[in-house]
Amino acid sequence: MTDITAMRPAEPDWSTVTAEELIAYRDAENRVRASTAARIITGEPDPGAAIGWQQVALPGRELPVRVYRPPVAGPLPLVIHVHGGAFVGTAVQSDWVNSHLAAHLPTVVVSVEHRLLDWETPLSAAADDGWDVLRHVVEHAGTWGIDPARVAVFGESCGGLISALAAVRARRTGLGLRAQVLVNPVVDVTAAAWTYDSATRYATTPTLSLPLLRFFQRLAVPEGADARALSPLYTDDPAGDLSGTAPVLVVVPTTDPIADHGRRYAERLQAAGAPVRLSEYPEAGHAFLSMPGMAPQATPARAEILDFLRESLGG
């Protein structure tokens, strides 16, 4: 059996990492995450879904997306998925959950291979990627074989932030969403982001640490940028609240430095009158849904997400 730990690169010192070191680390880590050997951790894809890469032509750029399709005729519901990782990560790491949703909902899942953060690419670029793919697929529903009236967004970690921002944009522009699924989402990239109790209690965990989060924040919000505009916890729509936001399932692993991000966002949505369900998974760590081989809580979480989307995206 391949030793995945031995294949993974050593983490750099996040307080001093250079651009060259970040690129080298990201490339090496993503090769591991996309490898067949990594499936002992990331899980085997569901054989009931066809999986393939496509290119999406967006304003000023082309972007890869990973598409999961069931063997049934459309038009089908659409789930736009955004993987976690921020400055490292690939849609392939989410094959286990996305192929299962595609096969068993059934639905078309389009997972966005968004631009990863670095000193030249802030969070706003990744947020644009999530929104632009959502809008493109809905506008070309016939080509994609999807029903534009049955659409959901689904994101993990930084992808949860991107998905939440896309849902806010969808409300502002009148693009109808049926549901949001936000798994261990980052929803605050302001200076207050790491003052929550969970960040103090779980400052160092195997899958996420406070130094790494601080590095993420430095890349996400360049000097002079408006951190509140990129923080779903604070982002307001023109009506001043989120009462018209699509129903939300917030999934929170409890031993996660950003567990309180999800909890606070669920509270804010509830206060605004938005339909929201907060579901906590005891003893689960950050990114647990992408690691079913190590986190037994991933399987019931996947089942809950499937049930929520089935209820939300029904005919």
UniProtKB/TrEMBL annotation:
Record's signal peptide: none
GO molecular function, one term: hydrolase activity
Keywords from the named record: Hydrolase
Keyword Hydrolase found: yes
Pfam family, any one: Abhydrolase_3
Domain Alpha/beta hydrolase fold-3: 79-289
InterPro entries the UniProt entry points to: AB_hydrolase_3, AB_hydrolase_fold, Carboxylest/Gibb_receptor
PANTHER family, A to Z: ALPHA_BETA HYDROLASE FOLD-3 DOMAIN-CONTAINING PROTEIN (PTHR23024:SF24), ARYLACETAMIDE DEACETYLASE (PTHR23024)
Name of the featured protein: Alpha/beta hydrolase
Organism per entry: Planomonospora parontospora subsp. parontospora
Source taxonomy: Bacteria, Bacillati, Actinomycetota, Actinomycetes, Streptosporangiales
